[in-house]
Every structure is written in structure tokens, then in C-alpha cells.
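Action item from last week, closing it out:
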Amino acid sequence: MATTTGTAQAADLNDPRMKDIAMQIVSSAENSSTNWKAQFGYIEDIDDGRGYTAGIIGFCSGTGDMLDLVELYQQRKPGNVLEKYLPALRRVNGTDSHAGLDPNYTKDWKTAAKDSVFKAAQESERDRVYFNPALRQAKADGVRALGQFAYYDAIVMHGDGWGSLDFTGIRKRALGKAKPPSQGGNETTWLNAFMDARVWTMKQEPAHEDTTRVDTAQRVWLKAGNLDLNTPLRWKVYGQSFEIK
């Protein structure tokens, strides 16, 4: 029989299997597929004001994370196919412009995505910018796997460190309504407050006003009391149904 400690340890997204589950769920929302490993070469402009969105976590040409990724790739493999776009990526950062990227950037991105060095760089930047900061805060707040995932999904979509509609802003809004377990609060109550704050934030941005990745996924598991994100998992995103057995 599992002890409380054992359960808490099992419900940790750092576990490779749990991390893979987290990636599958995010991919279902970002790419309409749980096969996240097929998304290294994904790239398109989804008209959300962030320029090109690409790769396993939706790196954007307009928000700086794509620039950081291509710089890391250049450090690890000088002379790669994307290196020539670094000046353009620096210029378009903060805008939705494709200036200096079209017409061949998308083709060259797909070529780079066949390179194991570029794939590893994508995973490194995903962890540095999104996964690790989300888990650090989640563990500090005393939440288990579902809460860890809720934080991760929020930081993937909203980023952090740029303003009131970022991940820190969402958490701050939630703190106005509830306390996390580390401060003596109830975990379910806290996660409901966090998800409420996330939904409010999503509705402030036209590109994110569809809140199903919370409503018909995370909230479903929370209502079921699945705080450890145990499989099987069933959910819907944007009307599509998914399952992890």
C-alpha cells in the first residue's frame, strides 16, 4: 500500500513517464495530436500576433523564445541551416512580422527539425523556459501532478516575466481568492482558484478566448479528484477527444 509520501513522489512531472504525459496533453491543445515528438518540425503563423509559432512547445518569433532557441542551436552547431536567420529574428522580436524570414524560413525550420541537435535544443529550451520554472513554483506551492501540469500549461501559453497577463499574474490573481497547500490551503480549492484566474486571463486575449484546455481537460480531472493525474486520462480540447491509457 502506497504511503502518502510515496504517492506524492509518484505524482511528480519530473518522472519521465509523467513528463511524457504532460507533453502529450499540451500537444493535444497546441497541435491537435498527442504525438508531441512529431511536432519538432511544426511551424505556422496562427494569427495571434506572435509571428511564427513552431516546434514542440510553440516557440514564437515575436516573443523571444524562438530567438533564444535558434541562438542555442547556433552555439551547439555553428553553420546550421537556421543560423542565417538570427539577424532577422532579432529584428522581428516583439512583433508579428516575417521580415527577413520569408520565403524559406518554414522550409529550413522543417529541415533543421530532422537534426537531433536541434531536437535536443528544443527540449533544453522547453525545460529552461517553461517546464522547470513551472515545476519549481508548483513544488513550492505544494501541489501534486495535476497542479504541476496546470502551472506548466499556463506558462506555456502565457509566458512569464512580461506583465499582468503572464503566469505570475495568474498566480497572483489566484492568491487573492485562495491559499496554496504550502500556506495551509486546500489543494482542490487552490487549483480551482488558479484555473479560474487562468480562464479570466485567457479571455483577455482574443487568440486564447477558447478556454476548453482548462474547462474540458484540467477541470474535469480536478472535479474527479485526480490530483495525481493518474491514467487512464480522457479529455477534450477544442471539441476533439483524446485519451491516454
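Closing note: Residues 73 and 79 are 10 Å apart (CA to CA).
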